[in-house]
Amino acid sequence: MKKLSTIISGIIMLMLLSGSISAGSNTAINTAESSAADYVDNSILLAQADTAASGTEDDIYLEDEMMDDLDEPHESIADPLEPINRAFYHFNDKLYFWVLKPAAKGYSAVVPEPARRGVKNFFNNISFPVRFVNCIFQGKFEGAGYEVGRFVINSTLGIAGFMDRATSQFEMPEYDEDLGQTLGSYGIGHGFFLNLPLLGPSSLTDTIGSAGDAFLEPMNYLDMKTKYDLSIKAVETVNKTSLRIGEYEDLKKSALDPYVAYRDAYYQYRQSQIKK
Q1: Among residues 36, 89, 96, 90, which one has the least CA distance to residue 237?
Q2: How far apart are CA 172 and CA 12, in angstroms?
Q3: How far apart are the C-alpha atoms of 201 and 203, rounded to whole Å?
Q4: pTM surpassing 0.85?
């Protein structure tokens, strides 16, 4: 599929940008970073576990509260492929720290944050068809209307989407919908967890959804020379990561088992999106 080849190509270009190794990239970490904010409550709970053994009365009281919370059942996703998923998690983790993060830090040192947010807005605006069609599939016709309005406003007043005028001036909400959420809204479960090399966290349903969304992504239909295609994907990946440096690190630092925190953060994030 063209999307997969585009992602692989982007990874190769990213290696050249970082100068660290000769191949690879990791769009995976971006999803994990995005979901870290939705995992704050669990992260705080796990952080409390590290400080609950000092022996003071306050610490003992805190530990009792923590244990009461841990005794409550927490919903999670099935993970029958855990040994394989863990291996890929460690691979992607090293790729993030050795390649993607250094490249993103270097990029952010020379490109100011307003410009980086403008680039993010540009790529987000281009992906309008994915959100629009999935709003229709889910019966969110008001959301589909908002998406059309946002696209028109940001493409014109927002100067090709680099500025999000629809939000700042017109307070128009964005409906971040995709096919995985659409399938979930129809009552189709996640299946089981998949942690894919280079591509990152997913589920059986979300993997199928991503393949479907690839046909709606305008960037996949651009007929450009390979070097330009690689450059665009590399900039998009590095730019997005530069705006989220530290979030994945915080999630990993506060977790007793980083893999479980990573997996559950993704699951809870996707669940919250489906329920919106």
Answers
A1: 96
A2: 37
A3: 7
A4: no
The rounded distance, in Å, linking the Cα atoms of 261 and 267 is 10
According to the model, what pLDDT value does residue 263 have?
96
Q: Which pLDDT band holds residue 228 (cuts at 50, 70, 90)?
A: low
Show the tokens assigned to 275.
């329920």
| pLDDT of 87 strictly over 90 | yes
